[in-house]
Amino acid sequence: TSSLTVLGIESSCDESAVAIYDTSAGLLGHHLFSQIELHQVYGGVVPELASRDHIRKIIPLIKQLLNEVGEQQNQAVKIDAIAYTQGPGLMGALLTGSAIASSLAYAWKVPALGVHHMEGHLLAPMLEPNPPAFPFIALLISGGHSQIIRVDNIGQYELLGDTLDDAAGEAFDKTAKMLGLGYPGGPIVSKFALSGDPNRYQFPRPMLDRPGLDMSFSGLKTFSLNTWQNAVKQGDDNDQTRADICRAFELAVAETLTVKCKRALIATGMNRLVVSGGVSANRAIRASLTELMAQRGGEAFFPRLEFCTDNAAMIAFAGAMRLQAGQQNPSLNFSAKARW
Ligand code: KG4
Ligand code: ZN
C-alpha cells in the first residue's frame, strides 16, 4: 500500500495542537499552543474562552507546520487526509477543530475523519521507537477518564474496568485546588510530592478490598480535603504539609492503579502494559507500573512526556491507522460528540 500523509488537529480542551504523520516516514512535525495562562486566573478551563482561542490559534499553527515540514522536504507537503478530534471534550472547542478540519478537507479535496480523543491517547505509545505489539492491556488515565482496556488490535477494544466516580486526573486537579495550588493540578501536585514525607499521612487504597477492575478516586480527594482542614485547625497549613499530603495522595493513586493493572494482566494472561493520558506523565505512577512489569517479566510502554497530555500527534496517528484500514467520514457533514 502507498503511504498516507495525515494532518491531525486536536482541540478538545485547552490545547490547540496540530501534527503531520506519514505512514512511511513517521511523525514529520507537530506544534502545540497551551491555553494554560488564559485559564489560570479562573482556576480551571473556561469553555467559551477555550473555543475562541482555538479559533485564533489553529490556522496559524497549521500554516507554520506546513511551511516547516515543506522546508525540511524541500517541496510543498501534500496532505492526503485530515484527522480531527471529534470527541469527547468541550462542545465549542471540538466544533472549532471539526469545522476547520472539514473545511480544509473540502478545499483540498481530501477525506476528513473524526477520531475519538481517547483512542488517540491509547495509541500514543506507538509513536515511540519501541512500540508495543498487540495484544496488550491499556491503562488510560486522563482528566476525564480512568479506564483499563483490553486491546487486541486497532479498533478492537474491550473495556475491563472504569472509575465509578472521578477520573484519576480529576482527583489530582481537585486536590491541588483544595490545597490552593491552582490549575492544572497534576503537575503541581507531582512537584510538591517530591519534597513530601511518605510516612506522615496514610491515605486509603480505594476499591482494593473488592474484586474486579473498577476504580474510585473521589474518596482520595475527600481524604485530601479532610487532612488539609485538620492541618489548618492545628495551624499546620504550610508548604511542608501540602507536600506531605501530595506525596501520600500520589502514592495511594499509584498503588491503586498498579494493583488494578496487575489484576487485569493476571486475568487476561498478558504481559504488555500500555499507560497513557495526562496522568501517565506522573513520575511516581510511571515508576510503580514499570516496577510491576519488571517483576512480572513483562514490559510497560509510555508515550514520551509531551505526548502523555493532549497533543495532535496521537490524533494524526490514530487517524492514519483508521484511514489506512479504509475508514472515512460518510459525507461532508460533521458533528462534534462532547460525550462520546
Ligand atoms: O490527557 P490530558 O492532557 O487531557 C484529558 O484528556 O483529560 O490529561 C489532563 C490531566 C489533568 O487532570 C492533569 O492534572 C493530569 O492529566 N496530569 C497529571 C500530570 N500531568 C498532567 N497528573 C499527575 N501527574 C502529572 N505529572
Ligand atoms: Zn486528553
Automatic annotation (TrEMBL):
GO terms for cellular component: cytoplasm. The keyword Transferase applies. Keywords: Acyltransferase, Cytoplasm, Iron, Metal-binding, Transferase, tRNA processing. Residues 27-317 form the Gcp-like domain. Binds 1 Fe(2+) ion per subunit. GO terms for biological process: tRNA threonylcarbamoyladenosine modification. It catalyses: L-threonylcarbamoyladenylate + adenosine(37) in tRNA = N(6)-L-threonylcarbamoyladenosine(37) in tRNA + AMP + H(+). It comes from the Bacteria. It is found in: Cytoplasm. Its EC number is 2.3.1.234. GO terms for molecular function: iron ion binding; tRNA N(6)-L-threonylcarbamoyladenine synthase activity. Signal peptide: none annotated. Its cofactor is Fe(2+). Substrate binds at residues 140-144, 173, 186, 282. The keyword Lipoprotein does not apply. Pfam families: TsaD (PF00814). It is an enzyme of class 2 (transferase). Fe cation binds at residues 117, 121, 310. Required for the formation of a threonylcarbamoyl group on adenosine at position 37 (t(6)A37) in tRNAs that read codons beginning with adenine. Is involved in the transfer of the threonylcarbamoyl moiety of threonylcarbamoyl-AMP (TC-AMP) to the N6 group of A37, together with TsaE and TsaB. TsaD likely plays a direct catalytic role in this reaction. Belongs to the KAE1 / TsaD family. This is tRNA N6-adenosine threonylcarbamoyltransferase. It comes from Thiomicrospira aerophila AL3.
